[in-house]
């Protein structure tokens, strides 16, 4: 009957619209016209992203609340990070894109040489669920600023944010140059069969390997923004009240689900015992006597992760916290002391509000502990000693190194953000995003006469 044939036609249209090969072909067609290359187009897209973020901030914040229980401060934090990234990029883009002159050896003179930043083509962005807005759009700022077309695959584990991105992005950005494809493993697997000119993936290392293997088939370069266990070293002589506040803030924000959250504390000498009371006090200052009632604390993403985290609460000796509620997706901010390096909580990245303290006798032992393990995404240290800072800088390897704070390095727009070894490949933010999403083309020009 006519009803069902109309339905069928509609279904076919929808299937065609989301066929990965068609979406990529459309984006490639747009790139090939050259319309994404001019500075004016790039600035217009960044301006449109800014308008989207300001006009729809309430919508995005509601989605972040639905997905992760993010309160206003946390949710707006994702929006404001992006506004800063857009503004910093708009302010400098022309200067970043200018060809850079290079010196020419005497044998080739007279001649001119320069480095030109060429857009790559079609970029695939695969985003995770923990900061589902920030981590979807921050790489998009760089990919568009570098003159590419973009296919975004948001995380299916943050469905409200994924739906908001799919609905709102096409209303603001160039529809022929930016596409959103929602979905889980089957859809992502289908996308990864296509040929892209760059794949930018944020998430865990197991999937990072799948992404890199798929990219290898087309010789597509990848950026992998991964995670790992980021230590916080605390040395005697550091102000332990301030140290505990800053570690607690970085650790328990978003219920511990932050890629650069301090994963565990390496407490040197007698700092371990003193930190127990200071961390307990810091948690109460942040979330009150009952964190379950705090609007800013946040939820664990799903029951599976809740179960995984609850199983870690028995390791070591409980200092504070320990409560959990699977239905409310709640794990209380928890500090564990006397934790053995072999305990399960010291196995994989915790990615939740559980903070083990490992006591080590001295800085040598702390450095050895770090270097025996995978290179972390971030290393934090709280120390009053310049010599310690120098030793940690020279004797350890990590994506970022921060003294006296946690997490904040990613909000310094002129610093690169990325991992090393198991914590990732490549970097972005600000001008580093332009480098990531461009080809640095060597141009040599010698007159014929
Ligand atoms: P996730 O489960 O949302 O996965 C990330 C993306 O990979 C999603 O879009 C998902 O659809 C896709 N995916 C999942 N399985 C896949 C498969 N088999 N094939 C193809 N695609 C697949 O997020 P996650 O990995 O649980 O995120 C947590 C991890 O990400 C942590 O390790 C964290 O440290 C890391 N992380 C790193 C950064 C960073 O900037 N370096 C930021 C956030 C999170």
TrEMBL record:
Family under the similarity heading: Belongs to the aldehyde dehydrogenase family.
Boundaries of the shown chain within the full protein: 216 to 664 of 664
GO cellular component, one term: cytoplasm
GO MF, one annotated term: aldehyde dehydrogenase (NAD+) activity
Domain of life, source organism: Bacteria
Residue intervals of the Aldehyde dehydrogenase domain: 2-443
Keyword Oxidoreductase found: yes
Keyword annotations: NAD, Oxidoreductase
Protein name per its UniProtKB record: Aldehyde dehydrogenase domain-containing protein
Catalytic site positions: 225
This protein's record includes keyword Secreted: no
A GO biological process held by the record: aldehyde metabolic process
